[in-house]
Amino acid sequence: MLKNICQFNLRPSVDPAVFWNQQLRGHAGTTAEVAGDLLAGYVMNRALRAIDGRIPYDVTVELWFRTETDRDQFLELLANTDDGFDDEVLDFCAYTVDEATILEPGHRSATA
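User: That's the sequence. What structure does it adopt?
Assistant: Structure tokens below.
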């Protein structure tokens, strides 16, 4: 499985709460629909508050693909989709990562 991370900040004129709700109803659904079977997983994360230091990005998106070919086809399809998303975003970056899951979300130790 191939995992890509996309991170970005919002333009100062964009309200983060409004953006989040619109993206969950709009861009995220469009992305999943356009992707079809090319996308093996899709998670959106928004930064709420810094625990230590500063938050480098407002939103982080995790995308999983079965193959590099699936990823490349997905990126080509998405590049031809204009839903206004790019007008609200600054400082976009995307990269491929290795992932090692140490504990699944929701895990409870036997001693808890």
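The chain has one domain: 2-97.
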